[in-house]
Amino acid sequence: MFLLYGGLFFVLLSRFVFIQVTGTAEGQSLATKAESKYNRVQEIPASRGEILDRNGEVIAEDTLSYKMIAVTREDVSNNSSIPRHVVDPGDTANILAEYIDLPQEEILEILNNGIEKDKYQVEFGKAGRDLSHQKMLEIKSLELPGIMFIQDLKRLYPNGTFASHLIGFALKKETEDGKSKAVGKMGLEYIYDKALTGTPGKVEYQSDTKGFLLPKADKMVTDAQDGYNIHLTLDKTIENFLEDAMNKAEEKYKPEKMTAVVANAKTGEILAMSQRPTFEPNTREGLSTNWLNEAIEQTIEPGSTMKIFTLASAIEEGVWNPNEKFKSGTYKVFDRTIRDHNNGLGWGPISYLEGFQRSSNVSMAFLLNKIGDETFIEYIRRFGFGQPTGIDLPNEAAGIVNDKYPINRVTTTYGQGVTVTPIQMVQAMTAIANEGTMMQPFVIDKIVNPNTGEIIEDNEPVEKKSPISASTANQVKDILESTVTSDHGTAQRFKLEGYTSAGKTGTAQIPKGDGSYLWGRQLFLYSFLGMAPVEDPQLIVYVAVHKPKIKDTEVGSQPVAEIFNSVTESSLKYLNIEPENLELSKPITMPDLVGKNLVDIQMDLEAQGLKTVIIGQADKVVEQYPKAGTSVISKGTVFVKGSGEIQLPNFNGWSKRNLMIYKSLSGLPIEIIGDGYVSKQSLTAGSIVTSETPIVVQLSTPQEVADPVVEKEETEEVEETEQLPQD
């Protein structure tokens, strides 16, 4: 017995020594097994990057939400005075079905599945995610055993319907490990999904089997890296002006669809872009099968807006004589007949200038003879038609310049048989507004890494080859203005209150797809391509309305004018372009003010008609806005920063843009509430303030200026020709 037990003890001791020395048992590392038992890793979620407007206003961001889970393992409640797991699955499922979008039967199945498979916890899929704080509190107040909440992130679009086909949306997607992450499904959210997606961090620690941190256990933290922030050229205020105007036109005229673009005439920056039908990105309500951004990806036959570039070609070639007369009415191209929009009756012999103002198709046909077919098509391509603009968005359509037959070249002069995109029209118009310099449109201002502040991509305006001279561009501008001011002009409705405007209307037939065209007042595409103010164009606005339900007493340009006038007037006021005596306003090049005496430069600037806002009342200028070399309109506002104490100005009537500039230069903690123009401020003007003084400023949306009533009868043009030969 002694030898037997002694032998067993020796074997056991040998085993202990072996394990102690090697640290392994049955071929497995005991240290590794211990680590796997007690080591825990908790993920730190990374925020998806923000999408911001040009002023840093949020368009899309991640916001706090809650994910509901149910603890289903019974041993979690051991040594606890209250149950910490789901005690009654049936009762729990019955109650939860009233609060989340999931049937009671499915909830019960999820709970029972977790219990049967001895899972620590279960989730409820989409129905249990993205819960609001209020919904979480409602369920939490029920005190259901085992029901818990984890903070989560939800994609939020705080402006609702806002350039929705451009911005797009992101949705939560289940990953292979049962987790979820936001994935871009449309628009910029899809295009820049990789840049917007962050990298989660993690916390590594040791805990007991119930998850409690072990004494003296270390934590290792790897910080999450948030996704890149994308700053757009869009201006939130101008976009809201556009969305509001399109909503009103949609409700009033119920068109089949609409497209509109607002651009900076100097730089090609897209300030606003929208279309109808549209949708609410938070809920996807209104989202149809059409996911195309129609300003970029869809082509149209532009109609008479194309006559702008036919006119420019004629002037540049030296064959434009505004006082020369032609016989209006009809024009023959072999066996085809071109007709003016008044059923081919015309207005007798009229001048080419009057022909353009009346939007005569026949005048364009005669001009083509003067320009020459091939030369004209070359000009059209110089203006960027038939090729993508290169805007920083994918899937851009190129359009088609059809010059196969002589009739094709004639109809192209007035915008039929040629296809273009709205963004091509805007790009081409920059050449007219910029004295011949054509600017490439773009929507991405910069991409920034929020974790480091590094600018990943920084876009600047891009000049393209000038299709025409400055002299030609200025002549075209003047003639386009006459379509608004002349008694013969088809664009009289586009006259602005207090501002000059120029542009060209279009009333185009819509092709059926079989070579023929739809016909009828409610079946046309009505459009306008315009700029304002004429003396120094700041904005280019393109609006197209398809098949509006207009009354017999209404003209087709009416819904287009209501959108254009409302958006352009409000935007010019917001940009502080003064409407009074605008014809006397001339651009001023900003001098370098840094280092100069505050009092002296204030007197100099105001002598030139500029308004000055002084930040800090003492010594010399340390910062200025606009920067030296920038062009400023007379009566514009200049911000000058000195040193010393800051007296709060009277903000009443200030635009949000100017308020943002003042806030940035002063460094004051100004809380801005609302959109539009300043109506209230929490501290009176003249108050001495510091970086610790709380300041609240309330903005209100400007009232719309009523459209002037046009008493005289107005005419509209319709591009019409006989059946075209097919390819």
Topology:
Blueprint: H1 2-22, E1 24-25, E2 28-29, H2 30-38, E3 39-44, E4 51-52, E5 58-71, H3 89-96, H4 104-116, E6 121-123, H5 133-140, E7 147-156, H6 164-167, E8 169-174, E9 180-186, H7 187-191, H8 193-196, E10 201-206, E11 220-222, E12 229-232, H9 236-253, E13 257-264, E14 270-276, H10 294-297, H11 307-316, E15 325-327, E16 330-333, E17 336-339, E18 349-351, H12 352-357, H13 361-371, H14 373-382, H15 406-413, H16 422-433, E19 438-440, E20 444-448, E21 455-458, E22 462-464, H17 470-485, E23 502-508, E24 525-532, E25 539-546, H18 557-574, E26 587-589, H19 598-607, E27 611-615, E28 618-625, E29 631-633, E30 637-643, E31 646-647, H20 656-666, E32 670-673, E33 677-681, E34 688-689, E35 695-700, E36 720-721
